[in-house]
Amino acid sequence: MYTKEEVSKIRQEFWTRFGKYMMPVLSSEGEKINWINYKTGIPHLYFRMNATKDTAGIAIEIMQRNTGFAAKLYSQFQLLKPMLQAHTGEAWEWNALCENEHGQLMSRIFIEEKELNIFKEKDWPSIISFLKPRIISLDAFWNEYKMVFEMIG
């Protein structure tokens, strides 16, 4: 069992290493980008990567602070589902309404790989290999369709 400090240190070390690994990778528009803290430019819409003791995952999360706006965003993603799947090359899971670990309501579109453990350094290459192509393909999708989401309001 790890202490809170050890858990924090291991996570920080992994995400620092992932960030350094991704640093030379440019966005689909050819610009430098902070892959770990991806900015969508749309309020309450996040692209999040996560790694735990059980899984690695990447998600599109729409926070439900303004339910009408969130519903419009989720509906737009549903309309663009074939394009998202074409960019990622795989089907992601869709959840119109769920709670995050803090009890906040959100919509979530995600994919996870089970049996990867951030606390086992030997799993880090597999976690990185899982996350890298998916955040890059999500970036390509976003750069092509972001304008559609910007018109929602």
SSE layout and pairings?
Layout lengths: L3 H19 L22 E7 L3 E9 L3 H13 L1 H8 L4 E7 L5 E10 L9 H27 L3
Antiparallel strand pairs: 1-2, 2-4, 3-4
Helix pairs in contact: 3-4
Overview of the structural elements:
With 153 residues, this protein is of the alpha+beta class. The protein has one domain (4-150). 44% of the residues lie in helices and 22% in strands. It has helices at residues 4-22, 67-79, 81-88, 124-150; strands at 45-51, 55-63, 93-99, 105-114. It has a four-stranded antiparallel β-sheet. It is globular, with a radius of gyration of 16 Å.
Terminal residue distance: 47 Å
Q: Major sheet: order of its strands?
A: 1-2-4-3
Number of strands: 4
**How is the quaternary structure best described?**
single chain
Key descriptive features of the protein:
44% helix, 4 helices, globular, 153 residues, alpha+beta
Summarize the structure.
44% of the residues lie in helices and 22% in strands. It has 153 residues and is α+β, with helices and mostly antiparallel strands.
